[in-house]
Write a sequence for this structure.
């Protein structure tokens, strides 16, 4: 190797940078991202792919919107600290359940909280600025934040692949206009077209490539990897369960139809409520998707438990979150009130204990 490079062994083995310089450079190029709970437990950086799994009403979309607001909010605006990232978000809606009013509600609540921390009392507020100017300040900041939120709706996998292919051009165009490219990529939810893509028999394109659910997933993964290679972003993906334990696996779509008939009779023994209660779901995405995911968090809705608001006059649904990859051996309980996720306490799975988070 030293002969090929045209230098001696000592020069070839010379240290390019120290460990301290390497860590400093790594932390500056891909700094850790602080997200609201319960996503704050695992250290996340640009280039990570986070899968948020859970049944309906477990808070998956709420976490996406909360993280999106954290990204599009600036760190500071006109001397008021908001603690955001001030970067753009690409939100790809696959199940057509995106609620723009909910996003606006969360964003306006965060803006009001930031302004309230800057002006804690109404007397100080009236001394510093008039109400009309205050509302103009909020509306201007709201419009500036919404410019950094990019929304795409896809009705099939072909449109999803086309949207992913345009990520690079979209990020470059937004970078020229806003001064910042896409920093968060969100997909809600990745299994929305599972039954549509799996229902037809595999077909062959003119080029000889076979079109199937697995090949479509591989194309999706390929486009995401290509975008991450050119521009590291944080990818947040929601995934709803389809199968329960003892019903089927991710390899069953390669088997015969007689297998499906047998599994359909077995599936009748399991109710949807029992599956959601146990939280036992089998992986249905192909291995190409599983290798892409770097972090996994599982959410659950506790129907039997309820929390109360600070005023004590409002019943709130309680959810749990558990980091599966990496395994943190903890399960946190949290509830969603108004527009915020608040952690109640954390249950340690190993060893078994419980403590209150302040």
């Amino acid at each position: 190797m030293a002969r090929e490079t045209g230098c001696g062994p000592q020069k070839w083995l010379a240290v390019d940078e120290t460990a301290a310089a390497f860590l400093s450079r790594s932390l500056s190029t891909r700094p850790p991202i602080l997200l609201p709970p319960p996503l704050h437990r695992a250290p996340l950086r640009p280039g990570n792919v986070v899968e948020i799994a859970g049944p309906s009403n477990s808070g998956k979309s709420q976490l996406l919107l909360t993280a999106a607001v954290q990204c599009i909010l600036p760190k500071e605006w006109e001397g008021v600290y908001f603690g955001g990232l001030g970067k753009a978000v690409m939100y790809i809606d696959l199940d057509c359940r995106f609620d723009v009013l909910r996003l606006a509600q969360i964003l306006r609540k965060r803006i009001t909280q930031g302004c309230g921390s800057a002006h804690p009392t109404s007397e100080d507020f009236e001394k510093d600025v008039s109400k009309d100017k205050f509302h103009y300040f909020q509306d201007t900041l709201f419009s500036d934040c919404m410019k950094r939120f990019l929304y795409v709706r896809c009705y099939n996998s072909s449109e999803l692949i086309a949207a992913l292919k345009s990520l690079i051009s979209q990020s470059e165009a937004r970078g020229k206009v806003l001064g910042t490219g896409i920093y968060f990529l969100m997909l809600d939810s990745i299994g929305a077209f599972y039954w549509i893509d799996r229902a037809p028999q595999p077909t062959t394109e003119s080029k000889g490539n076979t079109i199937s659910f697995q090949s479509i997933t591989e194309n999706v993964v390929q486009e995401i990897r290509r975008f991450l290679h050119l521009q590291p972003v944080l990818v947040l993906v929601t995934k709803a369960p389809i199968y329960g334990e003892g019903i089927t696996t991710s390899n069953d779509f390669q088997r015969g139809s007689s297998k499906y008939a047998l599994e359909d009779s077995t599936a009748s023994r399991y109710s949807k409520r029992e599956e959601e209660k146990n939280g036992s779901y089998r992986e249905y995405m192909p291995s190409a998707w599983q290798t892409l995911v770097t972090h996994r968090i599982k959410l659950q809705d506790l129907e039997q438990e309820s929390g109360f608001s600070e005023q004590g006059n409002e019943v709130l649904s309680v959810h749990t979150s558990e980091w599966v990859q990496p395994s943190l051996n903890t399960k946190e309980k949290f509830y969603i009130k108004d527009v915020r996720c608040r952690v109640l306490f954390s249950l340690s799975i190993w060893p078994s204990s419980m403590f209150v988070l302040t």
Remarks:
- The two ends are 57 Å apart (CA to CA).
- Residues 244-271, 275-279, 344-358 have pLDDT under 50 and may be disordered.
- The first helix runs from residue 2 to 5.
